[in-house]
Design a protein that fits this description.
single chain, 212 residues, alpha/beta, Rossmann fold, 8 helices, 6 strands, globular, binds adenosine-5'-triphosphate
Length: 212
Amino acid sequence: MRRRIVLFGGSFDPIHLGHTTVARDALEQLGGEGLVFIPAKRSPLKGFMPFAGDEDRRIMASLAVAGDDHMTVSDCELNRPGPSYTLDTVAHFRKQYGDPTDICWLIGADTVDDLAYWHRITDLIDACRLCTMYRAGCDAPSFSRYESSWGRERVARLRADVIETPLVNVSSTEIRRRLATGRDVADMLAPAVLDYIRAHGLYKSLEPPSFL
Ligand code: ATP
């Protein structure tokens, strides 16, 4: 039988309940055998380095999925010199799982605007199923503007792979902002992730740490 895995990349700086809630829902809707969170070494499109270090982000992601048999964390992008290109990561998993495997790569609706700038985006659309999830505060995903450059068939596939995930109004930016100003974030994070942040003194400032 054809295997299906679901991959979810991001900065996860820090991982929050928005990420894990939509991930669980998408995995169920897609019927994959498992979902892998993949913290990026450096997002090619974010103009700044992550606030927390690679190891801290990997550990927080592991804490967030602990006890869930269907979710794991991969350090494959953290172990590659940045920036982290999704096409390389899909190739890595394709090699690991072999053919035939459906590889579903999750993105949030806010990412649709950026797709035009992604590295070899048409090759990526051809290499996996790029699945777009709903996100609170964003319009429902629309791809019409890409039809002339990427072709109708690719855009039809992107449309077919939109997943109506629950709306969870949380972002890492808001969490970092609240933590830096001493406000409560308990309803936005898994308790173990919040304990880790406190124990390691993360996100105390809105400036990225100088060691990065
Ligand atoms: P930041 O605020 O620092 O930009 P973020 O909360 O968007 O961070 P990322 O780690 O950058 O988190 O996101 C990784 C992926 O998860 C992206 O594709 C993003 O669109 C998606 N995502 C993040 N938060 C949500 C959410 N609440 N609902 C749906 N998708 C989300």
